[in-house]
Structures are given as structure tokens and as C-alpha cells.
């Protein structure tokens, strides 16, 4: 019998809070939540109160959380995910990163750091399906990867690119292609799609070669991601129709479930999927 894996969560919003609850409910004995950190201390405090009836899980600084944890789970923001992972890996802690967009162009640096400090980086598939097959296809040769993201026009409100192009979201009745370009450009113009484009690029052929199309559709209320991969070993097509996380309409519920699934792989005896 191993000691329970000590877990610290950085970012106590929709995914972090759901995951903290899951650790308490589903992984008792195998994992122990030891620390919570959020730049909004009240959020960490409120979550700790719900879980253990006091604020004993709240860390005053990120370094304090890292010192207590075997595994640091980042569920905060793309602005800080790289530095959080960097700090955790440097202290030989394993790290799971949800804000994958924040490490997109620097993940090799993290891989080198993990190797040096004998630690691991976990990047959940997040809001898309097909990462397992893409990982396998990469062992052959991938020729092309195309991501098509379809969302309700209202999801694009406030996006600067839409304003600059003079697109009137409220007048879209059917479907309209808003953007077509590389994952690197998509991440720049549509930061809310950053994680899906990032994990797909990292798993596949990189952000310059990965093609992205973004479509506004008045016919859907879901966040839909279609992926088409052409490779020497065959073609794969996936379509994921996500419901939204009840605590954050910008986050797909599947992204949270995917982090639970990764945790299950880490803690369980059998690793399923490529
Ligand atoms: N991989 C994926 O497919 C996927 C899907 C959805 C969301 N995400 C990403 O996961 C992250 C969490 O999503 P969410 O829905 O829980 O967001 P959220 O906004 O509900 O919660 C984020 C929390 O992080 C805290 N935070 C922000 N900056 C911080 C910092 N520097 N240090 C500590 N805490 C900080 C905020 O105060 C907030 O409580 C986001 O970056 C989001 O983009 C990834």
C-alpha cells in the first residue's frame, strides 16, 4: 500500500473546485488534497471551508503549496501556467497543466526541466476527443491536422478580431466562417480557444502547421470541436459536442472530466489508451 499522493491545486475556479471535490469523493486513500492556492484568497478559503470546514488547506504563497505537494495541478490561467509548472518541476514535483495555451510555445523548455528533475508533466486532452489516436499516428507520419470549432455567435462577443473585421454577430442566422488560419494565429485572435488549439498542436504537428477554422453558428448552444487528421496510417475524424461547465460558461465540462481521467490513470494500476 502506497502513501496517498499529496495534491495541491492552483486556481480554485470552476475546474479547480470540481477537481478538489472529486479528489475528496473519488480518490480517498489514493490521493489527499493538501493545499489550495488562488490569487483571490477568498476563493481558496471558501473551497477549503466546504471541504474541511476550516481554512487549513489555504496556502499563502505558491511556493508553500509546491513544498507540500507531490503533484501540483494548475487550473488557473494561461498567463501564469508556464511559471507555475516551471516552479513545480524545478522542485522535482509532478505537474498537471490545464491552461495549456500558456505553455504552447515553451513546452519543450518544461520537458527539459522535467527530465532534469526527474518529474512528469501531464497535459489532459481537455475539451476535445482524438488525442489518443493522434499520439499513435505521430509514431507514423501526420500530413495534415484541421480543427474546426463551432460555437454560438454570442460566445464571440467582445472578441477584438470580430470587431476589427466589422462582423455583426447578432445578424448571423445560419453559419458563418469567422476565421481560417494557423493554430498560432487562432490563439492570438481567439484567446478563448487557446487550450484546444494548444493541446492539439502539442500532440500533433505543432502550432504553425495545425490549421484552424472558427465558425459561428446560430443553430448550436454547445461548444463543438471537429478534428480531421490525415496521416500515412489513415484518416481520423472526431466531433465533440460539449455542454458547458455550470460554474463557468467559457469552460467545457469535458475539460474538467478529462483532468479527473488523467488523475485516475496516475493513481490506478492500468493505463488505458495510447
Ligand atoms: N485544456 C482545456 O481544454 C481547457 C478547457 C477549459 C478551460 N481550460 C483552462 O483551465 C483554466 C481554469 O479554467 P476554469 O474554468 O476553472 O477558470 P475559472 O476562471 O473558473 O478559475 C480560474 C481560477 O484561477 C484563479 N487564478 C487566476 N490567476 C491565478 C494565479 N496567477 N495564481 C493562482 N490563481 C489564479 C482565479 O482567481 C480563479 O479562481 C483556465 O486557464 C482555462 O482557460 C482548459
Layout of helices and strands:
Elements lengths: L4 E6 L3 H13 L4 E7 L3 H12 L9 H7 L2 E4 L6 H10 L3 E4 L9 H10 L4 E2 L8 H7 L4 E10 L8 H5 L10 E8 H7 L4 H10 L7 E7 L5 E9 L2 E9 L1 E2 L2 E5 H15 L7
Parallel strand pairs: 1-2, 1-3, 3-4, 4-5, 6-8
Antiparallel strand pairs: 6-9, 7-8, 9-10, 11-12
Helix pairs in contact: 1-10, 4-5, 8-9
Bound molecules: nicotinamide-adenine-dinucleotide.
Percent helix: 25-40%
- Computed Rg: 19 Å
Strand content: 25-35%
- Quaternary structure state of the chains depicted: single chain
Question: Based on CA inertia axes, which overall geometry fits?
Answer: globular
Query: What's the number of helices?
Result: 10
Task: Provide the structure class.
Answer: alpha/beta
Structure in words:
- With 274 residues, the chain is α/β, with parallel strands linked by helices.
- It folds into 2 domains: 134 residues, Rossmann fold (3-Layer(aba) Sandwich), CATH 3.40.50.720; 112 residues, Dihydrodipicolinate Reductase, domain 2 (2-Layer Sandwich), CATH 3.30.360.10.
- The chain is built from 10 helices and 12 strands.
- It has a 5-stranded parallel sheet, sandwiched between helices. A 5-stranded mixed sheet has the order 7-8-6-9-10. A two-stranded antiparallel ribbon has the order 11-12.
- It is globular.
- The mean pLDDT is 95.
- The chain binds nicotinamide-adenine-dinucleotide.
- Nicotinamide-adenine-dinucleotide (NAD) binds next to helix 1, helix 9 and strand 12.
Would you summarize the structure shown here?
The protein has 274 residues and is α/β, with parallel strands linked by helices. The chain has helices at 14-26, 41-52, 62-68, 81-90, 107-116, 131-137, 160-164, 183-189, 194-203, 253-267; strands spanning 5-10, 31-37, 71-74, 94-97, 121-122, 142-151, 175-182, 211-217, 223-231, 234-242, 244-245, 248-252.
Amino acid at each position: 500500500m502506497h502513501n496517498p499522493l499529496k495534491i495541491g491545486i492552483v486556481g480554485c475556479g470552476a475546474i479547480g473546485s470540481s477537481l478538489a471535490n472529486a479528489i475528496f469523493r473519488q480518490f480517498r486513500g489514493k490521493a489527499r488534497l493538501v493545499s489550495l492556492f488562488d490569487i483571490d484568497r477568498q476563493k481558496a478559503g471558501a473551497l477549503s471551508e466546504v471541504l474541511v470546514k476550516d481554512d487549513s488547506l489555504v496556502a499563502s504563497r505558491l511556493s508553500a503549496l509546491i513544498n507540500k505537494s507531490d503533484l501540483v495541478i494548475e487550473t488557473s490561467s494561461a498567463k501564469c501556467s508556464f511559471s507555475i509548472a516551471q516552479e513545480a518541476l524545478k522542485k522535482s514535483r509532478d505537474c498537471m497543466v490545464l491552461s495549456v495555451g500558456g505553455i504552447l510555445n515553451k513546452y519543450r523548455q518544461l520537458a527539459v526541466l522535467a527530465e532534469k528533475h526527474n518529474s512528469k508533466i501531464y497535459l489532459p486532452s481537455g475539451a476535445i476527443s482524438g488525442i489518443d489516436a493522434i499520439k499513435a499516428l505521430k509514431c507514423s507520419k501526420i500530413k495534415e491536422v484541421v480543427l474546426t470549432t463551432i460555437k454560438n455567435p454570442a460566445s464571440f462577443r467582445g472578441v477584438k478580431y470580430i470587431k476589427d473585421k466589422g462582423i455583426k454577430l447578432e445578424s448571423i442566422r445560419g453559419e458563418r466562417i469567422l476565421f481560417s488560419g494557423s493554430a498560432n494565429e487562432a490563439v492570438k485572435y481567439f484567446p478563448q480557444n487557446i487550450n484546444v488549439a494548444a493541446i492539439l498542436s502539442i500532440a500533433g504537428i505543432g502550432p504553425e502547421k495545425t490549421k484552424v477554422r472558427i465558425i459561428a453558428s446560430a443553430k448550436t448552444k454547445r461548444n463543438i470541436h471537429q478534428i480531421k487528421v490525415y496521416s500515412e496510417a489513415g484518416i481520423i475524424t472526431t466531433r465533440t459536442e460539449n455542454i458547458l461547465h455550470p460554474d463557468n460558461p467559457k469552460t467545457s465540462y469535458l475539460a474538467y472530466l478529462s483532468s479527473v481521467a488523467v488523475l485516475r490513470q496516475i493513481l490506478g494500476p492500468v493505463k488505458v489508451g495510447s
